[in-house]
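Sequence, structure tokens passed on for absentees:
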Amino acid sequence: MTDIRLTLDEVMDLALSVLRAAGADEENARPIARCMWRAERDGAKSHGLFRCAGYAGAIRSRKANGRARPAVAATEGSVIRMEGDRGFCPVAHESGLPALGALAKEQGVAALAIRRCLHFAALWPEVETLTEMGLAAMAFTSSPPYVHMAGGRRKVFGTNPMAFGWPRPGQAPMIFDQASSLTARGEVMIAARDGHLAPEGAGIGPDGRPTRDPEAILAGAQSPFGGYKGAALALMVDLLAGPLIGELTSLEIEAEDDGAGPALGGQLILAFAPERLGGPDAAAHGERLFRALLEEEGVRLPGMRRAATRPLTPEEGVTIPASLHRELVALC
């Protein structure tokens, strides 16, 4: 497979061109493009330009509102409720995350519930935005069902990811962002595109048997990580990003969605002010734990690989398959 190299400016320009051509206005195109730009900058290929055609297709088909104006519906105590106006979540994050951060600093703990939005990105960008405010944070979202329950074969959950971030003043934050399935959906799709096998335990085929064939997994179902443990977390996320905030479960999303690309759903984001909960020593206490962990050779903290990649790409650029580049240029 032939790759081409792009500068980060070219990544942004290409993403913006595709989104504008699909019908997105600037208030929508820029936050979405920046989300893909951040993923490419940090080497997170499954959520970079690989997602651009999906964003554009949803906007062009009017499944997603490319001129969305998300708005706060209510603020009650430590809870902010936003209506996403059928736009992509990064657009809602533009105003929602600063409001959530300010409320968390005031209250100690705060929650942002976004309804009627489409989440097609990784979760770490919004979590990282909050850690940059000195906050710890968690984020959850669901999707149409791709994952079977432990012991079953029917698709009942989305990959139902979750992310957690801890601020580290002067250093890259500790952030993990993981699916409830063994692999992210995008990783299976990239394996199918590139002709690679999926990891052992990634999913089952339509016959219900475990397989590493990514095409068979996409036709069958992805598997939760750790069997019942991953399935329990997928169930938790379904409830947090669904009924808890007045949104749909994965199965309900499937019932109202056409199955093509991103789907309408909800997102729950929580923010915590460490100094309000644990006192002024909370951040330093976390650093003592990190130092103890890193004393052992071979250990790295979640997020360190992305943090190590980040300073390299402004000089080295990024690579994407030439076929993907041709596809995106055609969409412009």
About this structure: Residues 184 and 288 are 31 Å apart (CA to CA). The radius of gyration is 19 Å.
